[in-house]
């Protein structure tokens, strides 16, 4: 297997469109690494540039210590699984899995044996004679993975391979994919716009915006300490509350005229300074009576999340969302109070986290 290193990698399209802007990344050998960001941020272009399907305008790509920037895809010793799986509809499952070996001119008997071995590892041994059209979406996904595995590449590049599956099958496939990667100990670079998917699967995540890497870290790091307001607003099934505030001299921040806990970042700001006050809905305590340091507002929306409720308060600070226990009754139109956990408060200055 192999580590992947990107140095000042850039991609410029005609007309001055900058898809990648001097990207620096180091992906460890055997790591499950996610490229995460909204549509158009450059994550798929970055993956295709690693694969050699896109030609870099500047910078370098190294796989296993070797510079492969100028090498064609076939000589980079990587395998790619696409969003649509790209299976050959006229071929059997066995022939689809064996196709990369056929391109490498591996003898037919060896190809079939390898296809059968790989299919068995992915629970496909009863489907070798079928064609892709006779399989479910999850089975087709496993065939695409088996085809990638068959030639033992140094790295897997996965371009949103779960996006065509329904919600339940995505959860099953996600668990399967993580277990498979752990067993193979292979380097994986996984593109997704689904932050829940990235948080669940990845060892580390790179969050991209407009062709630039905005933060690299473990799922816990990007969730609990987003480096900037873009990452803070993007990461999390319930986005972070980002509220305008003014620093007070007592270690608090005035948000909507209410003094609330300033959190660990208050040591890096000065009295009177304007900041963005960040706190996740999960880290707000709910109450129906006034409390010191609580943000207040009228309940305007209650969303059922299954095991909890997401309540929106409209008040002087602006809309504030708070996660409330499923058993708590929250009538619309009533007044609620949301108290931040001081240890979970983040302050942002000019869009960047105050450490």
TrEMBL record:
The protein here is known as ABC transporter ATP-binding protein
Name the species this protein comes from: Streptomyces litchfieldiae
Domain ABC transporter, chain residue ranges per copy = 4-235
Q: Which UniProt keywords apply?
A: ATP-binding, Cell membrane, Membrane, Nucleotide-binding, Translocase, Transport
Which PROSITE patterns does the record cross-reference, listed alphabetically?
ABC_TRANSPORTER_1, ABC_TRANSPORTER_2
Give any GO molecular function from the UniProt entry. Answer: ATP binding
Query: Which InterPro entries does its entry note?
Result: AAA+_ATPase (IPR003593), ABC_transporter-like_ATP-bd (IPR003439), ABC_transporter-like_CS (IPR017871), ABC_transpr_MalK/UgpC-like (IPR047641), Mo/tungstate-bd_C_term_dom (IPR008995), NA-bd_OB-fold (IPR012340), OB_MalK-like (IPR040582), P-loop_NTPase (IPR027417)
Pfam families assigned to the protein according to its UniProt record, in alphabetical order: ABC_tran, OB_MalK
């Amino acid at each position: 297997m192999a580590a992947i290193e990107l140095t000042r990698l850039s991609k410029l399209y005609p007309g001055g469109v900058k898809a990648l802007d001097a990207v620096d990344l180091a992906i460890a050998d055997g790591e499950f690494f996610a490229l995460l960001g909204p549509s158009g941020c450059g994550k798929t272009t970055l993956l295709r540039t690693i694969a050699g399907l896109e030609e870099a305008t500047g910078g370098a790509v190294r796989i296993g210590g070797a510079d492969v920037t100028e090498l064609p895809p076939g000589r980079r010793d990587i395998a790619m699984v696409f969003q649509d799986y790209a299976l050959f509809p006229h071929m059997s499952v066995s022939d689809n899995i064996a196709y990369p070996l056929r391109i490498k001119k591996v003898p037919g008997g060896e190809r079939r044996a390898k296809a059968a071995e790989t299919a068995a590892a992915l629970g496909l041994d009863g489907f070798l004679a079928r064609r892709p059209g006779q399989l479910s979406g999850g089975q087709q996904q496993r065939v695409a993975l088996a085809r990638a595995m068959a030639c033992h590449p140094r790295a897997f590049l996965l371009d949103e391979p779960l996006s065509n599956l329904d919600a339940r099958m995505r959860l099953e496939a996600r668990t399967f994919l993580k277990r498979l990667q752990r067993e193979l100990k292979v380097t994986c670079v996984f593109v997704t716009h689904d932050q829940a998917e990235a948080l669940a699967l990845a060892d580390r995540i790179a969050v991209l915006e407009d062709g630039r890497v905005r933060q690299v870290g473990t799922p816990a790091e990007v969730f609990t300490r987003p480096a900037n307001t873009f990452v803070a607003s993007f990461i999390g099934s319930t986005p972070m509350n980002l509220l305008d505030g003014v620093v007070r001299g007592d270690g608090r921040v005035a948000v909507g005229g209410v003094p609330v806990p300033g959190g660990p970042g208050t040591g890096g700001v000065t009295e009177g300074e304007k900041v963005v006050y960040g706190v996740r809905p999960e880290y707000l305590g709910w109450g129906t009576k006034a409390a010191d340091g609580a943000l207040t507002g009228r309940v305007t929306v209650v969303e059922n999340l299954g095991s909890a409720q997401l309540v929106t308060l409209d008040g002087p600070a602006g809309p504030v969302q708070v996660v409330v226990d499923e058993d708590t009754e929250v009538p619309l139109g009533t007044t609620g109070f949301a108290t931040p956990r001081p240890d979970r408060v983040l302050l942002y200055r000019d869009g960047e986290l105050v450490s």
